[in-house]
Amino acid sequence: MIQMKPAGLALHGVVKRFGPTEVIPPLDLVVVPGELCVLVGPSGCGKSTLLRMIAGLEEVTAGRIEIAGRDVTHAESAQRGVAMVFQSYALYPHLTVRQNMGFGLELAGRPKAEIREKVDAAAAILRMTDYMDRKPKALSGGQRQRVAIGRAIVRQPDLFLLDEPLSNLDAELRNEMRVEIARLHKELGVTMVYVTHDQVEAMTMADKIVVLNGGRIEQAGRPMDLYRDPQTAFVAGFIGSPRMNFLNGAALGEPSVHTWGIRPEHLAISPTEGDWPATVELVENLGSETLVHLQADGIGPVIVKLGRDATFETGGHVFLTPDPSAVRRFGADGKPLRR
Amino acid sequence: MGVATFLGRRAGGRKASFTDWLCYAYLAVAFLTIALPVVWLVLSSFKPESELTQYPPTILPNAPVLLEIEGQPRPLPAYTIEGREGVFGLRAQVGRIAVLIDPHPPHEQVRVEATTITRLAEPHLEVSNYTEPLTARLSAFDFPLFLYNSAFVTIVATILSVVMNSMAGYALSRYRFRSRMGFLLLVVFALMIPQTVILVPLFLVVNSLALYDTLWGAILPVAATPVGIFLMRQYMLTLPEDLFEAARIDGGSEWQLFWRIAVPLSMPAIAVLAILSVIWRWNDFLWPLIVLQRSENYTLQLGLNAFQGEFEVQWHYLLAMAVLSLLPVTLIFAFLQKSITGGIATTGMK
């Protein structure tokens, strides 16, 4: 049977430099055992580098990495008790699914019976039992993804590392695999560190989201905490879809406010009365919700999300009213202003 | 795919386009250029010695019709004479005058202009061209020994070449180390130097290592080739780095990464290298000629040289044995070619 012993992960003052460029300034992060921690951020924010340092594929310039309380900063990948799922899946093309999944155990010289048993158990969890003798090229994208995850499960790692595992799948499959990975995390009770640039994945899957920007942690916390109470303008803009409307404070008569933020769902729209007159530019009807792109007079472009089907004429004039309790105000340094 | 569809393939579209015609014309010229000499060699290898020097040359292997005539010490070749009935045996030809003898009594002797007579020939395969060198152990040609030497040199050199070149290619493609570029440049420079330029220094090295006149002397200097290293490096560069990182996380050692991941995935390149190496080593003449002295160390190509004496060339044996020496390379090529076309690896990546 597959049994996992979830391990904690701790990064202490971890730094990465490529030559003179500092990709990751000193960074601290703690992931408690059994947690699914999502590292999220725009491309080039250092999230993949951070994951590769945890995996031991990238040297740590300074600082310390601990897995299950053990200092692994300079340990080989194989000695860290981690398994990694790559964005490209990185399946061995010349081996069958079974051989792919058992490769790690085989290299470790484990007995054949044990390998078979563990591979079969992982295949059952992933519902891949019927495909065990196929080569990767005979599998669909979702199946390859499963094999890559299976390869990680078989090794019974202390820590699962997933590097944008869903970005090569189409939208429907991505939703399916997202649920699958969340289910696996619950069933196996393992610690996972999951890298993505997709905030929807982060919001739906994470126990803890870590928003990275330029190698720095902008904010770490539970998804809804980040959504409700973003600690920086960057987090406010990154979490939530469509992104928060950022408006110029001066244009709204609040010159002390650098960035005035309101989420699209916190704006009321009315044909007759409201705070800001606006012109409808585009209406995106998604069935269960409607996104209205408007130009607010003297304020700038604004998106409003309505939780219903609605019809607006392009070029029509309407009025917008923000929900005062949902307004977020940020200073020039991107930090929230308390009032 | 049938032969007709195979030969009738087009770049696309329902009718053959101009480029299709051009393509096939080019292929036909190339095919004939390459195939005709080989066909000519095979046909000639079945001709009797006398037929090889016949002018005008014949295409198919023939043998002259011989007539046993009473009173003549040996059979005479049969000729017809313009304007006369019957067949005559040619006894002598001096200048423009030919002397022929009527096979029927009273064995009349006829003197005619040489231009008026026509030789009679019949289709004939001179199998003895093959059997005699193989069985009779002609003075300087020990076919089984030469074959063994050639096979030994070819097989060992190819194995060494594949192992060394793929290891060097792996290191140059995967490892980041100081002077990596320097090593690669050395290899590329070595590509540009023709073998003849380094013959003398190579000979001195081989001689000082006591490898002169041994088969290993013919093998070791050519085991690692710049072409091979370059080929393997270029191919291994195309293997995705992720696979090696995945294997590293799976606990693979450096050797396992090479042997379990890089080698199986580089099979198409290895097959190409193996084929090239077999062809090079089997057909190699110059280097073995220099390094191998005693005839018991001769490879087949050197052995063939034995038919070329100072005063005469035994063309009929030489041609027949040349055909035999072509066979293994041809067979191996036909066999390994499949692994080139069929073995291209997909990585399971988009």
Chain-wise SSE layout:
The complex is a heterodimer of chains A (339) and B (350).
Chain A: E1 9-18, E2 21-31, E3 36-40, H1 47-55, E4 62-67, E5 70-71, E6 82-85, H2 97-107, H3 112-126, H4 141-154, E7 159-163, H5 171-188, E8 191-196, H6 199-205, E9 208-213, E10 216-221, H7 223-228, H8 233-238, E11 245-248, E12 259-262, E13 267-270, E14 276-285, E15 290-296, E16 300-306, E17 317-322, E18 328-330
Parallel strand pairs in A: 3-8, 3-9, 6-7, 7-8
Antiparallel strand pairs in A: 1-2, 1-4, 4-5, 9-10, 11-12, 12-18, 13-17, 14-15, 14-17, 15-16
Chain B: H1 3-7, H2 18-45, H3 49-52, E1 62-64, E2 66-67, E3 76-81, E4 87-94, E5 97-101, E6 109-113, E7 117-119, E8 121-123, H4 128-135, H5 143-174, H6 180-192, H7 199-208, H8 215-219, H9 226-237, H10 241-249, H11 254-265, H12 267-283, H13 286-291, H14 300-304, H15 315-342
Antiparallel strand pairs in B: 1-8, 2-3, 3-4, 3-7, 4-5, 5-6
Helix pairs in contact in B: 2-15, 4-15, 5-9, 5-12, 6-9, 10-11, 12-15
Task: Walk me through this protein's architecture.
The complex is a heterodimer of chains A (339) and B (350). Chain A is an alpha+beta fold and 339 residues long. Chain A folds into 2 domains: 9-236, P-loop containing nucleotide triphosphate hydrolases (Rossmann fold, 3-Layer(aba) Sandwich); 243-330, OB fold (Dihydrolipoamide Acetyltransferase, E2P). Chain A is 25% helix and 31% strand. Chain A contains 8 helices and 18 strands. Chain A has helices at residues 47-55, 97-107, 112-126, 141-154, 171-188, 199-205, 223-228, 233-238; strands spanning 9-18, 21-31, 36-40, 62-67, 70-71, 82-85, 159-163, 191-196, 208-213, 216-221, 245-248, 259-262, 267-270, 276-285, 290-296, 300-306, 317-322, 328-330. Chain A has a 6-stranded mixed β-sheet, sandwiched between helices. In chain A, strands 13-17-14-15-16 form a 5-stranded antiparallel β-sheet, with no helix packed on it. In chain A, strands 2-1-4-5 form a 4-stranded antiparallel β-sheet, with helices on one face. In chain A, strand 9 and strand 10 form a beta hairpin. In chain A, helix 2 packs across helix 3 (112-126). The longest helix of chain A is centred in the middle third of the chain and has 18 residues, at 171-188. Chain A is globular and about 75 Å long. Chain A starts with 8 loop residues before the first strand and ends in a 9-residue tail after the last strand. The model of chain A has no long low-confidence stretch (mean pLDDT 90). Chain B is α+β, with helices and mostly antiparallel strands. Chain B has 3 domains: 17-63, no CATH class; 66-119, no CATH class; 133-342, Orthogonal Bundle (MetI-like fold), CATH 1.10.3720.10. Chain B contains 15 helices and 8 strands. Chain B has helices at residues 3-7, 18-45, 49-52, 128-135, 143-174, 180-192, 199-208, 215-219, 226-237, 241-249, 254-265, 267-283, 286-291, 300-304, 315-342; strands at 62-64, 66-67, 76-81, 87-94, 97-101, 109-113, 117-119, 121-123. In chain B, a hairpin with a 2-residue loop joins strand 4 and strand 5 (97-101). The two termini of chain B are 29 Å apart. Chains A and B meet through strand 6, helix 2 and helix 4 of A and helix 10 and helix 11 of B.
